């Protein structure tokens, strides 16, 4: 299975009334260098929550924009790639058919799916839709993140090719286990067992198993404690 990909990078900018962000990205054609930290020229604000080795690249399915544009007709013209700050945009790859641990060949590089993207309050500011982060989370239209397991030259001319499937947990299932289901220790164990799962998600699931409760999503979704 080969999927053509559009590639985007961004610089950190200041946003009135919100914190600095590199959500605004521009398309890059031609060859780029992909390192363990991500694409050369791509920046991330707030390194604690964005970026890091398990979150080197963000991928968002282009077809979801049709859903958001019809849900919010007044903002419809904003819902085009890369409006959610994604690096990679495709048609045909969704949370349902991409799995935690999937390894893709992309030109010279190999990348591995680590987790769904956890929507944060910045998208609410970016689109002026007060609850967009929670709508993304509830609908499972979150996109996903990758680690880089073999760096190298990459290009928008080179397709993504699935070379290894390492788990039976789709990105959509992972989001449902984390956010949609009531406390379910067996499902947390299933997610922890998925090869390739990010360290931060493994930590969250293990904390739930030890504490017997689900943490609050409010600080991430709404930007408040």
Jot down its keywords.
single chain, 225 residues, alpha+beta, M1 Pyruvate Kinase, Domain 3, 9-stranded mixed beta sheet, 3-stranded antiparallel beta sheet, 7 helices, 24% strand, globular, molybdenum ion binding
Q: Can you list the strand order of the major beta sheet?
A: 1-12-8-9-10-6-7-2-3
- Rounded mean pLDDT score: 92
Report the CATH architecture. Beta Barrel
| First and last CA, distance | 43 Å
Q: How many H/I helical runs?
A: 7
| Proportion of residues in extended strands | 15-25%
The percent range for helix content is 25-40%
C-alpha Rg (nearest Å): 17 Å
Describe the protein's topology:
Elements: E1 2-3, E2 6-10, E3 25-27, E4 31-35, E5 38-39, E6 57-61, H1 64-71, E7 88-90, E8 103-106, E9 109-116, H2 122-127, H3 132-139, E10 144-150, E11 152-155, E12 160-164, H4 171-180, H5 185-192, H6 199-211, H7 218-222
Parallel strand pairs: 6-7
Antiparallel strand pairs: 1-12, 2-3, 2-7, 4-5, 4-11, 6-10, 8-9, 8-12, 9-10
Can you offer a commentary on this structure?
The chain is α+β, with helices and mostly antiparallel strands and 225 residues long. The protein has a single domain (2-222), classed as Beta Barrel (M1 Pyruvate Kinase, Domain 3), CATH 2.40.33.20. The chain is 26% helix and 24% strand. The chain has helices spanning 64-71, 122-127, 132-139, 171-180, 185-192, 199-211, 218-222, and strands spanning 2-3, 6-10, 25-27, 31-35, 38-39, 57-61, 88-90, 103-106, 109-116, 144-150, 152-155, 160-164. A 9-stranded mixed beta sheet has the order 1-12-8-9-10-6-7-2-3. A 3-stranded antiparallel beta sheet has the order 5-4-11, with no helix packed on it. The longest helix is centred in the last third of the chain and has 13 residues, at 199-211. 40% of the residues are buried.
């Amino acid at each position: 299975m080969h999927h053509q990909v559009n590639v985007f990078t961004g610089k950190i900018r200041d946003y009135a009334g919100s914190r600095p962000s590199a959500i605004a990205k521009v398309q890059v054609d031609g060859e780029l260098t992909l390192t363990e930290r991500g694409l050369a020229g791509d920046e991330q604000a707030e390194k604690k929550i964005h970026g890091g080795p398990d979150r080197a690249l963000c991928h968002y399915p282009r077809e979801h924009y049709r859903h958001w544009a019809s849900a919010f007709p007044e903002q419809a013209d904003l819902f085009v790639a890369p409006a959610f700050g994604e690096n990679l945009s495709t048609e045909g790859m969704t949370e349902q058919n991409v799995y935690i641990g999937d390894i893709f060949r992309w030109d010279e590089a190999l990348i591995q799916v680590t987790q769904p993207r956890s929507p944060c309050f910045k998208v609410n500011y970016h689109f002026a839709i007060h609850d967009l982060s929670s709508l993304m989370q509830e609908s499972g239209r979150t996109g996903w993140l990758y680690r880089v397991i073999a760096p190298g030259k990459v290009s928008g001319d080179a397709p993504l090719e699935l070379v290894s499937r390492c788990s039976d947990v789709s990105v959509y299932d992972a989001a449902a286990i984390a956010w949609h289901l009531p406390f379910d220790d067996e499902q947390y164990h299933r997610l922890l067992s998925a090869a390739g799962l990010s360290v931060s998600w493994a930590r969250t699931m293990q904390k739930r198993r030890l504490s017997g409760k689900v943490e609050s999503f409010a600080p991430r979704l709404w930007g408040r404690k």
